[in-house]
Design brief:
Helices cover 36% and strands 37% of the residues. It is α+β, with helices and mostly antiparallel strands. The protein has a domain of 176 residues: Porin, CATH 2.40.160.20. Strands 1-2-3-5-6-7-9-10 form an eight-stranded antiparallel barrel. The radius of gyration is 49 Å and the shape is rod-shaped.
Amino acid sequence: MKLKALVIASALLVAGVANAQESYVTNSFNSNLFVGLSAGANVGLDGLYGAVDGGKMQTGVGLGLELTVGKWFTPEFGARFDLTGIGTSLGNGNLPYYGAGVDLMWNASATFAGYNPDRVVSVVPYIHAGYVKSEGRGAGFGAGIQFPIALSQKWAIVPDFRFNGYGDALLLGNGSGVCASVLALIGVQYTFGKTTTFQTAAALTAPLAVAAAEAEAAKAEADAAQEKAEAEAQALAAEKEQLLKENEALKGELAGAAAENEAIVKNLMNTPACVYFEIGQATLSVKEL
């Protein structure tokens, strides 16, 4: 039992050292998924070139809504798909605005401060690529940053800010150059799946290490029991051999005693003897015996 406890303790120590290195494994497909819903302002920007050259830049604000579905593959990196609407404006004109895109996300807090499932506020920058339909339609590219505020392991409030750049024809349907939109949203996010946290490689392999250690300890105990049984068998065999020798010696002593008795009997039979009976008696008297 002492050997078994020592082996298991050694395995757990090795697992603990590996755990200190914080090497987290990529999770399964149905783990660390999330869905979010946000609302806020969608600011339209036009005439960026003109503003740089001294011209006037047109701006406007519309209602921004966003639905996101995504997954964290590691504590640091994830991706999400988003649907964005419903409008923006430029000058005095309201514009429709509908888009779909993909964001590649980086949890900078996990990179620089380490993974902590109990962290309250994180900093998550991301890059964005998508397709937008307004007065025109086309691809847009941008970048953003969000600051998830954890309410629990599964729920969070997420302020989200993103800048998207487009061609003029995309928002207005005519012209050339660059226009843009700035989304300032706040929403809720729900994390779900088989697990909502990450495990280290050591945490996953620790049960295997303990099982292997227990198997090794059990084997050691079995070997020790076998050695003990073999030693006891050898001791019994030696005792049996000693008893056989003693038995042979007793047989020899008995044979010698029998031969001696036989010699005595023969000697008595060959020696003349004279006995006397009392008158009128057919048996020897006690004094003759």
